[in-house]
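FORM 12-B: Structure-to-Sequence Request
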């Protein structure tokens, strides 16, 4: 296989959701750029990021999407077909120093469940773990919430980078495992996983979702 942008086996797609200010954009930047953007501007419309990492010896492109508003995003971006939005793996983020962001998780979770298929991996991330002195949500209660709702769970810090890589790697491993054991059907348009992209110049095969429109300003 040639080197360059097409040198990977799958594209895994993630949607990052949670209350405003919990650190979604910072997590996205920490994962894709390996640095903390302290003065991240407010997300307007949609934010995208991509990084290729290896899982089980295969190069996988991770495509992250942070919509400002899930429902509005879904309604307004016609270049992002409903089937594709409906298929994304979800990273559900709260801020361990703000209990209100934790209290809103049930509502975010039902959004995530509505937007994804039943085999979708949903990862709960308690962000800002570097602010231990200001902690407002215990690890134990969040862990219990995760268990009750069958979510993967980790506390992380977009600021120090602590556990950020692990959160994505664990999600990717779980998705890969679902592919291996057949519980995720790659041929289903709503699987959230895409095989390697077409070589430049080739037209889109049937049943493939359209590529996303970068920088939708809806
Ligand atoms: P979003 O609205 O969820 O996308 O949140 P942002 O990523 O824009 O972050 C909101 C604020 O939290 C910003 O001021 C960030 O600098 C800060 N922030 C984000 N992640 C962390 C973290 O892990 N630790 C600390 N101390 N601050 C963070
Ligand atoms: Mg943001």
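FORM 12-B RESPONSE
SEQUENCE OUT:
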């Amino acid at each position: 296989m040639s080197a360059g942008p097409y040198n990977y086996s799958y594209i895994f797609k993630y949607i990052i959701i949670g209350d405003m200010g919990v650190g979604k954009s910072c997590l996205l930047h920490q994962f894709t750029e390996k640095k903390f953007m302290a003065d991240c501007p407010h997300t307007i419309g949609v934010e995208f990021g991509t990084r290729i990492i290896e899982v089980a010896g295969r190069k996988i492109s991770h495509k992250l999407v942070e919509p400002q508003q899930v429902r509005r995003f879904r309604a307004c971006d016609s270049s992002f077909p409903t089937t594709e939005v409906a298929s994304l793996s979800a990273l559900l983020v709260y801020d361990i120093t703000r209990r209100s962001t934790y209290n809103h998780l049930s509502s975010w979770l039902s959004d995530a469940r509505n937007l994804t298929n039943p085999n979708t991996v949903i990862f709960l991330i308690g962000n800002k773990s570097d602010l231990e002195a200001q902690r407002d949500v215990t690890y134990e209660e969040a862990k219990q919430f995760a268990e009750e709702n069958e979510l993967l769970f980790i506390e992380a810090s977009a600021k120090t980078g602590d556990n950020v890589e692990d959160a994505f790697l664990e999600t990717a491993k779980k998705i890969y495992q679902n592919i291996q054991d057949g519980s995720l059907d790659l041929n289903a348009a709503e699987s959230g996983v895409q095989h390697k992209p077409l070589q430049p110049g080739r037209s889109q095969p049937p049943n493939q979702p359209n590529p996303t429109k970068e920088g939708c300003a809806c």
